[in-house]
Request: fold
Amino acid sequence: MITGASSGIGAAAGRVFAAEGATVVLVARRAEKLHELAAEITAAGGRAMVTAGDVTRETDMAQAVAEAVSRFGRLDGAFNNAGHTAAGGLLHETDPMVFEQVMDVNVRGVWNCMRHQIPAMLGSGRPAAIVNTSSVAGVLAAGASSAYVAAKHAVLGLTRAAAAEYGVRGVRVNALVVGSTRTEMMDQVLKDVPALEEAFVGRSVQKRMAAPEEIAHSAAWLCSDRASFVTGTAMPVDGGWTAA
Reply:
């Protein structure tokens, strides 16, 4: 199950996971985009299912998990990637509605997903894995808005708590600490505040932004049996941003 799958990292993950043999359940609000991606995956010999929904609505995520289990019999992995950001602005100047939206998508969205994914995974009797998308803003104040920094810190907290609670029951939970990535959301941020591009590129020791596929491959590894002894981690995929 991949959320935020209509574009960017989520869409790249749909292609990568399917290419590695996973049957993917594509979740996002824009159904038309999901169906286009599913058709592309199917044409390439993969298997994909579409279930449109909004991660901020718990009933949507409950339905997405239920449909996946009903059709395929179980849920082995999830990449909770849907996110929302707001660029720049001082904390005291941030509109409360902006704060609420950032927290709702990034924090409540992950909460809503795991609330329903975990019971499905526990019921399968098989090892399972969840990967949540955090950010360099989840470990330091990275120049993003205070709301986004707070939200991505919270994603790491949820990840670690879930890893501790469910590890003995066979469910691994990890997070990606993602650096600047060329996505639809990033393009909008840079459109709103063009001056941020120099800072986002400059903080990476590779002096570039990631391609969405680079993040997707990391998520696929964490969801796979190749990462069987990895849980509760915040794995940087940031071009060295947090190392320098």
Q: What stands out?
A: The longest helix spans residues 96-122. The radius of gyration is 17 Å.
